[in-house]
Amino acid sequence: MRVLPAVLVALAIAATPVIWSLARSRLAPSHAPAPAATAAAELEELRAGLAALGARVAALEARPAPGPAPEPRRPAEEANAAASDSLQDAFAQVVLIADRRSANAGLSVASPAFLAGLLGPPREELTDVCSVATNARLTGLLATENVGPIEARLVQPALVSLRQVFANVQVFEPELYARIRSAGSLCVRRVRGSEDAASAHAYGLAVDINIDGMLDELADGKTQLGLILLADFFRKEGWIWGAGFSREDSMHFEVSREKLEQWRRLGLI
Ligand SMILES: [Zn+2]
Predict the structure, then answer these.
(1) pTM across the whole model
(2) How many A from CA of 211 to the centre of ligand 1?
(3) Which residue, of 85, 178, 203, 213, is most buried by count of CB atoms within 10 Å of its CB?
């Protein structure tokens, strides 16, 4: 019987695909999902990821846009700004006046006698309070005008000169200019403590000023730092600074005798 083994081999070969298929289905892990199920899960995962991303984008868009960041100051700029700030703070500070007696070097004070000779007495009788000027020549010269940072009532050429003083201050010390305040100009009265000597205020030839409206204490030898700076501008225009008076009066500025003689020569007074 040699035919039987051959038939068995042929049967075995024929049955091989079926056996392989059966073996595969048996050996495969029963819990592994089918390919279609895996793809669906992956899609679901992607969708969830997209939704999370969308939520983050929406949250970012809802935030207020940050403004532009300030440019950092460089050290030199910082120092300059600090120095400028402290100088501005110091304008109103009261300090000792150095060498006040030579504050008016090159200029002379117009004495009451000189002023009376130039314009005549401002009124018959003088008291310690501001009164009305009755001198027609003087009243014809007086005017009230804005001279820059303040308003003043002075004789015409003094208004022109004061306006020039402040125009220079505005160019070279604009922060100081903005803080100049008036404490009075025309006031027809006698020099304090005198019998009948008319003050330069009585002729509209003087102005009292200060920084930030702080009144200066008379005769203490001190003044506001800003007034020391201003005194230079006044001197250049021919004005006397009261800081140089024997009784220091540093808020007081008046037209010098030299300036008045110049105005007289020019026919302005
Ligand atoms: Zn004065």
Answers:
(1) 0.69
(2) 15
(3) 203
Classify residue 181: in a domain, yes or no.
Answer: yes
Q: How far is the CA of 174 from the centre of ligand 1 (A)?
A: 24
Q: Are 203 and 119 in contact (CB under 8 A)?
A: yes
199: CA distance to ligand 1 center in Å? 8
Domains of the chain: total = 1
Within-domain flag for 139: yes
Domain containing 261 equals 88-265
**Considering the domain boundaries, does residue 236 fall inside one?**
yes
The CATH number of the domain holding residue 115 is 3.30.1380
Distance between Cα 258 and ligand 1 center (Å): 19
Distance between Cα 264 and ligand 1 center (Å) = 23
DSSP structure string for 169-217: HHHH-HHHHTTEEE--S--B-BPTT-SSPBPGGGGT-EEEEEETTPPPP
How does pLDDT run across 201-232, given as a tens digit for each residue?
999 999 999 999 988 888 999 999 999 999 99
